[in-house]
Design a protein that fits this description.
Pathway: Amino-acid biosynthesis; L-leucine biosynthesis; L-leucine from 3-methyl-2-oxobutanoate: step 3/4. The protein has twelve helices and 14 strands. The chain has helices spanning about 15-30, 45-50, 55-65, 90-100, 120-125, 165-180, 195-210, 225-230, 245-255, 295-310, 315-330, 345-355; strands spanning about 1-10, 35-40, 70-75, 105-110, 130-135, 150, 155-160, 185-190, 215-220, 240, 265-270, 275, 330, 340-345. Strands 2-1-3-12-11-4-5-10-8-9 form a ten-stranded mixed beta sheet, sandwiched between helices. Strands 6-7 form a two-stranded antiparallel sheet. The chain has a two-stranded parallel sheet with strand order 13-14. The two termini are about 20 Å apart. Bound molecules: nicotinamide-adenine-dinucleotide (NAD), 3-isopropylmalic acid and magnesium ion (MG).
């Protein structure tokens, strides 16, 4: 198979981690007799600096022409004071919208080898952790209109609109039900239906949609309780489905149970068309340019790409196994190093995974 991949390294640690992930992709492809064709496109701060726009038309075109997209991360303090209309993050939100990527899968899996790096007590993570967070990605407060600034009683006020239509809720709940069906058959829909109208509709549509999946046990949880339960007893969760902003927050929270946000990959998909794969973390400006970032979330995003965009299960499993091997040998980037094994940098970690394939 020939795989046409659009690479968007972006900002901060983005180029460092994408470089490692691409090497891994190329090695796996070669080993299994595939070819990879890559094209690199500008996004985020890097695009602002070059062409004055976080999402150039050429980038959208390159993504649409590819079979799949691999993104590093966008943003950083350099662009924090910029006109909000052209912030780096607008580039990421824009490409998600342009490709119709409403479904964001964020698996939070604790590698048993990393149990000591988890921030939870051993008795709590005893059974390990394997949660799939299904985050709605193109709706809610991120995109809702109206939004903006106004003046209320003589002072500045700002507002956003958290809005979901029935069809938007239904399609993401359907994705989550299909995933739950292939896993532990438990789906927890997270909302704030005790306060928000949008959450009450979310819950109603979730119940109606999940009724078509009698083999999937649907439960509901308020988001504040969910944030607490994730830490108190994460093993109660199988698949979580939630709206855009809640999913953003809960997935960062879930990541730390696995040791580090540097471990969590993600897949963003729509209905056909190229999907986008990226770590859930950001551009980590505090460690950028030092070759110390953890590239594993991006490498595992390549594994998700092979599995979900190309149906290449063996190839994806080869990456997962290589990561496991490297962790079992005790190699750790700084974020998952807890005093045992050998601390390595970003490119060294990439090379170790490469060797294990
Ligand atoms: N998908 C994305 O592109 C994305 C996601 C989140 C944040 N951002 C942007 O990134 C910038 C920084 O945001 P932030 O600091 O809130 O979040 P962040 O995820 O970039 O960093 C949070 C903390 O986690 C650490 N970290 C993150 N990834 C790591 C890795 N691979 N290895 C080791 N440590 C890692 C960082 O060093 C930092 O201490 C902002 O501009 C933000 O908007 C982008
Ligand atoms: C950078 C930002 C727009 C983005 C989001 O909020 O979706 C990030 O936090 C993420 O999790 O991918
Ligand atoms: Mg986030």
């Amino acid at each position: 198979m020939n795989m046409k991949i659009c690479l968007m390294p972006g900002d901060g640690i983005g180029p460092e981690i994408v470089t490692q992930a691409v090497k891994v992709l190329e090695k796996v492809a070669k080993k299994f007799g595939h070819t990879v064709q890559t094209e690199t496109a500008l996004i985020g701060g890097a695009a602002i600096d070059t062409v004055g726009n976080p999402l150039p038309e050429a980038t959208v075109a390159a993504c649409k022409a590819a079979d799949a997209v691999l993104l590093g991360a966008v943003g950083g303090p350099k662009w924090d004071a910029i006109d909000p209309a052209i912030r780096p993050e607008k580039g990421l939100l824009g490409i998600r919208k342009a490709l119709g990527l409403f479904s964001n899968l964020r698996p939070a899996v604790l590698f048993p080898e990393l149990a000591a790096a988890s921030y939870l007590r051993p008795d709590i993570i005893g059974q390990g952790l394997d949660i799939m967070v299904v985050r709605e990605l193109t709706g809610g407060a991120y995109f809702g209109e109206p939004r903006g600034e106004t003046v209320v009683n003589g002072e500045r006020a700002a507002f956003n609109t958290m809005i979901y239509s029935e069809s938007e809720i239904e399609r993401i709940v359907r994705v989550a039900c299909e995933i739950a069906r292939k896993r532990g058959k438990k789906l927890c829909s997270v909302d704030k239906a005790n306060v928000l109208d949008v959450s009450r509709l979310w819950r109603e549509v979730a119940i109606r949609t999940a009724a078509e999946y009698p083999d999937v046990a649907l439960s509901h949880m308020y988001v504040d309780n969910a944030a607490m339960q994730l830490i108190r007893d994460p093993s109660q969760f199988d698949v979580i489905v939630t709206e855009n902003l809640f999913g953003d927050i809960l997935s960062d929270e879930a990541s730390i149970i696995t040791g580090s946000i540097g471990m969590l990959p993600s897949a963003s998909m729509g209905s056909g068309g190229p999907a986008l794969f990226e770590p859930i973390h950001g551009s980590a400006p505090d460690i950028a340019g030092q070759d110390i970032a953890n590239p594993l979330a991006t490498i595992l995003s390549v594994s998700m790409m092979l599995r979900f965009a190309f149906g290449l299960e063996k190839e994806a499993a080869a990456i997962d196994a290589a990561v496991k091997t490297v962790l079992a040998k005790g190699y750790r980037t700084g974020d998952i190093y807890v005093g045992e094994g050998e601390k390595v940098g970003c490119s060294a970690m990439g090379a170790l995974v490469l060797d294990a394939i």
